[in-house]
Specification:
Oligomer: single chain
Shape: globular
Largest sheet: 6 strands, mixed
Strand content: 25-35%
Mean pLDDT: 92
Structural class: alpha/beta
Number of helices: 6
Order of helices and strands: EEEHEEHEHHHEHEEE
Distance between the termini: 31 Å
Number of strands: 10
Helix content: 25-40%
Length: 230
C-alpha cells in the first residue's frame, strides 16, 4: 500500500513561486494498475515524481507500508528506489555506447536477476541483442527501456507517457505486454498520461486538475490495449 498524505509542491523563486500540487491525499493498493489523468500543467508528472521518490515534496508524506520515504536521506532514498521501483518514460534514456543486452543487463544487475534474457525475448528484441540504440527504431528503443525496467523485478513500476512517442501499433504492443506482465507478476503499476483511452485499461483512475485531485474512480470492466481507442 502506498499512502499519500497532503502532498504540496511549489517551484520557482520566493518572489515568483508557483504551487504545482495543492495538498493531495490518496492511496494506491498493492497490485493495482493506476492511471493518473490530467491535461498538461495539471501537476500529474510532479505528483508521479514525488510518490516515486524522484523528488521531495515541500510538505506531506508518502508511505510505503508505513515507511515515509519523504524523510529518507538521499542515500537511503536512492537505495529504496533501486530496490523497490522502476521507471519508464516517454524519453528512452538508453546509454548510447551500450548494446541492447548491456542496457537491459544494467537493470537486471541491480536486482541480481540472471534471467533477464527472457524479458528481451518477450518484448521482441531477441534478434537485436547486439544492436546499439541508434540502430533501433523508436518502438524498439522503448521496448528496450521497458525490458531494462522490468529486469529490475520492481515492486512498483512508474510510467510517464510511455506511448507518447510511439505509433499506434507499437503503442498497443507495448501497453499489452506491460498489462499482461503486471497481471502475471502482480507488481503495482502507476501510469501518468493525458490519453483518456489508456485509463480504460486501469483498475483505478485518478483525475487531476490544477494541482488537485478532481475525481477518483474504479473501472468495473477493464479493456485490453487492443480494445481501447487511440
Amino acid at each position: 500500500m502506498i499512502q499519500i498524505e497532503n502532498i504540496k509542491k511549489s517551484y520557482g523563486s520566493q518572489d515568483n513561486r508557483f504551487q504545482v500540487l495543492k495538498g493531495i491525499s490518496t492511496q494506491i493498493a498493492d497490485g493495482d494498475f493506476v492511471v493518473i489523468l490530467g491535461a498538461s500543467g495539471s501537476g500529474k508528472s510532479s505528483f508521479l515524481n514525488i510518490i516515486s521518490g524522484l523528488e521531495h515534496p515541500d510538505s506531506g508524506s508518502v508511505l510505503y507500508d508505513g515507511q515515509d520515504i519523504t524523510t529518507l536521506p538521499d542515500k537511503d532514498l536512492t537505495a529504496f528506489r533501486r530496490k523497490t521501483t522502476a521507471f519508464l518514460f516517454q524519453q528512452y534514456y538508453l546509454l548510447p555506447h551500450m548494446t541492447v543486452e548491456q542496457n537491459v543487463r544494467m537493470g537486471a544487475d541491480l536486482a541480481g536477476n540472471p534471467k533477464y534474457r527472457k524479458i528481451l525475448e518477450a518484448v521482441g528484441l531477441w534478434g537485436k541483442l547486439h544492436k546499439y540504440p541508434a540502430q533501433l527504431s523508436g518502438g524498439e528503443q522503448q521496448r528496450c527501456a521497458l525490458a531494462r525496467a522490468l529486469a529490475k523485478k520492481p515492486r512498483v513500476l512508474f510510467l510517464d507517457e510511455p506511448t507518447g512517442a510511439l505509433d499506434e501499433q507499437t503503442g498497443r504492443q507495448v501497453l499489452d505486454y506491460i498489462a499482461q506482465l503486471q497481471h502475471t507478476c502482480h507488481f503495482t503499476m502507476v501510469c501518468v498520461t493525458h490519453n483518456a483511452n489508456i485509463a480504460q485499461m486501469a483498475g483505478t483512475v485518478i483525475q487531476m486538475n490544477s494541482g488537485e485531485l478532481s475525481d477518483t474512480y474504479t473501472n468495473k470492466t477493464r479493456k485490453t490495449a487492443y480494445e481501447i481507442g487511440w
